Amino acid sequence: MLEINELRKRFTGGPDAPGGKVALDGISFAVRPGEMFGFVGANGAGKTTTMRIVMGVLQADSGSVSWRGEPLGYDDRQRFGYMPEERGLYQKMRVADQIEYFGRLHGLSVQAAKKATDDLLERLGLTERRRDAVQALSLGNQQRVQLAVALVHEPEVLILDEPFSGLDPIAVDALAEALQERCRGGVPVIFSSHQLELVERLCDSVGIVSAGRMVATGTVADLRAAEGNALRVVVREPAPGWADGLPGTVTVQGDRHTLRTTDGDDQEILRRASKAGRVEHFGVEQPTLTEIFKEAVA
């Protein structure tokens, strides 16, 4: 298990910010073997800072990171796979040569690096681009190469900062499949993303961070249960003021009025809606991760 406990980090300020900026204020979470953990939050919330501390790029002011019950050290990090938000590829280097090079940096033999590279090129759909320079690739294919670099040494943990940013649906599916394959092999995977629907689809657990604090964490099912179910009613061309006095909020799109509420008498709401117009939908729904996120950071 990878455990992050009470991480705190303050960046010293300049003339315009003499007190500095608190980047992390007690971040804690854990990721189990074979678990995919989605790390979500607004820009500047603390996601990248947390990942950089885990990888040893930054040093925390206080708190700890442990792996398999022991403090995380340099040798452990050598066995991790890291994909930074700022991509670190050599643009004029050929794709296959680049992946092999990073494999050698991680201590693989020439033969092992070549075999791992061939396997990853095939798995990520890059075999036909193996001799191309990275700068000749689309953004999606460059992302695949960056993922191959993170995977080439068979890492024990994967930490990926915005790996799906800017990708088309085909590239998203290719990267997601590669990550799920690693999870099935017992590798813990942490990735940050602003694409909450993707996080909801892929992740076993989610952590929502806001202003350096973890404001919600758990499985998607647990977070949904904590929020409670909501009644959603969609009425077409209703009479004006039909929902006056009813609990909840009403949104309007064209001639459709949607009422969402967690309170009130369902039968009374149905009666009012039926009397006001044509009811297109009436049912209880669980909140989406997007709705949970908005509520958690409000």
TrEMBL record:
Subcellular locations according to the entry: Cell membrane
InterPro entries: AAA+_ATPase, ABC_transporter-like_ATP-bd, ABC_transporter-like_CS, ABC_transporter_ATP-binding, DrrA1/2-like_C, P-loop_NTPase
GO MF annotation list: ATP binding
Pfam families xrefs: ABC_tran, DrrA1-3_C
Keywords in alphabetical order: Antibiotic resistance, ATP-binding, Nucleotide-binding, Transport
Coiled coil regions, renumbered to chain: none
Alphabetized SMART domains for the sequence: AAA
Residues of the ABC transporter domain: 2-236
The keyword Metal-binding belongs to this UniProt entry's keyword annotation: no
Membrane topology qualifier: Peripheral membrane protein
Main location as per UniProt: membrane
Family the entry assigns: Belongs to the ABC transporter superfamily.
Protein name from the UniProt record: ABC transporter ATP-binding protein
Organism: Nonomuraea insulae
Species lineage: Bacteria, Bacillati, Actinomycetota, Actinomycetes, Streptosporangiales
